[in-house]
Design goal:
It comes from Lactobacillus colini. This protein is of the alpha+beta class. The chain has a single domain (about 5-95), classed as Alpha-Beta Plaits (2-Layer Sandwich), CATH 3.30.70.100. Helix content is about 35%, strand content about 30%. It has helices at about 15-25, 30-35, 60-70, 75-85, 100-105; strands at about 5-10, 40-45, 50-60, 85-95. The protein has a 4-stranded antiparallel beta sheet.
Length: about 110
C-alpha cells in the first residue's frame, strides 16, 4: 500500500514554476527521490492554471513520510516556499490495485 500526496503550489508571476525549477536544478528533488520509501517525486503543470505546479509525491508507507518530514530537507523546502511566496493545498490518496475489468480501457 503506497501513500500519494498531491501538493498544489500556487504563486504569482511564474513563481511556482521557478520554485519547481530550483528544486530540480539544486538537486533537492533528487535527494528526496533517493530517500528510503520514496516511490515518486515529480512536478507537473496544470494546463488550466499556469500559476500552479502540482507535485505528485508517493511513499511506501506513513513511516517513510514521517522520516522524510524529520529531515533537514524540509527546512530547505520551507525556505524555498517562502522565497517564492507559495501557498499550498493538498490531496492524499491510498493506492489500490487496478481491477482487471478496468484495464480494458487502457491503451498500451
Amino acid at each position: 500500500m503506497s501513500l500519494t500526496v498531491n501538493l498544489y503550489y500556487t504563486g504569482k508571476n511564474g513563481s511556482a514554476q521557478k520554485f519547481a525549477r530550483e528544486m530540480e536544478e539544486s538537486g533537492l528533488a533528487d535527494k528526496i527521490r533517493q530517500e528510503p520509501g520514496n516511490e515518486k517525486y515529480e512536478y507537473f503543470q496544470p494546463l488550466a492554471d499556469p500559476e500552479t505546479i502540482l507535485l505528485i509525491d508517493s511513499w511506501a508507507d506513513q513511516a517513510a513520510i514521517d522520516a522524510h518530514h524529520k529531515t533537514s530537507m524540509m527546512q530547505d523546502l520551507a525556505k524555498l516556499r517562502d522565497k517564492y511566496d507559495l501557498h499550498m493545498r493538498i490531496e492524499r490518496f491510498v493506492s489500490d490495485e487496478v481491477p482487471d475489468k478496468d484495464t480494458k480501457f487502457l491503451r498500451k
